[in-house]
Amino acid sequence: MKEAMNAKPEKQGNTDVSRRRFLGYAGGLAGAALLLDSCKKEDEPVISSGDGVMDLGMNDTGLLNLIFVISQVEAAFFEQVVLTPFSTNSDEIGLITRMRDHKTAHKELIRTYLDGKGTHVTTDFSAINFGNKDGVLENAELLANISTGNCNEAARLLISDKHVEIVAKMGSVNARHAAAISNMRSLGNFFGPVDAIGEEPGILPANAIATINRFLTTKVSGNNLPNK
Amino acid sequence: MKINDIIKYFEQAEEGSTATTRRSALKDFGVKVAMASLPFAAGSLYTKKANAQSKETLINILNYLLKLELIVAEFYTQAYGTANLIPAAFSTQFQSVVDQNKSHVATLQRLVTELGGTPYTIIDTDIDITGGRGSGNGEFVNSLSNFTTFIVQAQYFTDGAVRLYKGQIFEVLTDNITVRALMNIHSTKARQATFIRFTRKYMDGTKINPWITGTNTDTTNTAVQRMYAGESITEQLGIYLPGLNGFDNITIDVSTEAFDEPINKVDGENIINRFIKG
After folding, report:
1. What pLDDT was estimated at residue A228?
2. How is domain A2-10+17-221 classified at the CATH fold level?
3. What are the two backbone dihedrals, phi and then psi, of residue B224, each rounded to the nearest 5 degrees?
4. Would you say the ipTM is above 0.95?
5. Which of residues 117-156 of A touch B (CB under 8 A)?
6. Among partner residues B37, B49, B184, which is closest to A152 by beta-carbon distance?
7. Residue A42 CB burial class (10 angstroms; 0-12, 13-18, ≥19)
8. Which CATH number fits domain B55-275: 3.40.47.10, 1.20.1070.10, 1.10.10.10, 1.20.1260.10?
9. Interface subset of A 162-221, CB within 8 angstroms of B
């Protein structure tokens, strides 16, 4: 188990909505939108939807929060690969190191944009043998595919054009990662989930979450996210 | 807007959303909810365009992307017509790219037709893949003469397609079907770019990664560079990325690589019209 690269301190003190006041809001929304206070400090309990699950919130902030969560998992996964590499091939490990850096940029951007109120997750990769190249790359491709497909679907679900733009900017880089990993797994394979009409189908938030939860200690839910 | 109003809006939208219309009313409602339910800084950054894009605007955008696709299709047709240019080791992948691009043409044509427009057409002989506006003697005149020049132009077209599509995705937001198609195509283009970049490295030994660093320093070709202008941005959503939150691994290069930048329609037209007989 490894904390998802959240060890570094973040900006504090710029929260303009107090915890108490926020909980009032959340109550009014019948449990929705718990995004705005998600366990910022270590000594605070996890705000959950009642079953030990962290709700990601709603609307654009919720969708960006999901991207924040996926990016944390990917960054932590790639970081583990770098720490315990399956190979001495500097080309492969070099690419994965760089993917880690890109995902660090994605998660820190969204963390900052959400003003520190995004959901911090703790990853659990105990089921994965990081010495096994096939297993590592299979999971790496899975994560990159989820990341790409989630961005594809989010573009349709997001409201703000500014948010669509940033998601599209990250989405194609995620697709580059996915294709590069696919080629590492099997030389000459780049197109993964691309369908018969040359499109990479989107992945609904609920489906992305179902997969990403496999890598989380405390699970997340997207019950209040747009999902159709 | 009060919280109870938001809930009401939300309930109404849930009910209404079963009747799927091409233009989603859900998004208009969503703006109000989002504006009201974001009691922090991000809320102020909502800048959704107030009005739906007109059908004419959407048709123009789709036809512009269609023009790009037809140019690229002709590029590959001529490449396939040149002996020993497409490397045999990657013929399957190149064929996938060509087939995917054919599908993209078909999808764009269908969307234009559905919107009541006429899909853009051009006769092959009016496409000048050298970028010479019909002279046949443009900046890419050597592209078919050897693999090195060919693969650089292929990279230019695929990275460029990612950027040109991306530039239109947030221009078509009110039409869910078009947003979905452009986004899903655009991610395939990014995979194609990864393939082309890998092939260039594999066949040619060029030190190149699957992503775009800065303004793509792997080539100094002026014509190619035109497609990479604006790729070296290190700030997103008003946030400066290098070293963000103390993460030293977010270097300047990483900051530029982690985000593919869009090209707007005016700049995109300027680039691709070079391949059309003037």
Report:
1. 76
2. Ferritin (1.20.1260)
3. -65, -40
4. no
5. 117, 148, 151-152, 155-156
6. B184
7. exposed
8. 1.20.1260.10
9. 162, 164-166, 168-180, 183, 188, 190-192, 194, 196-202
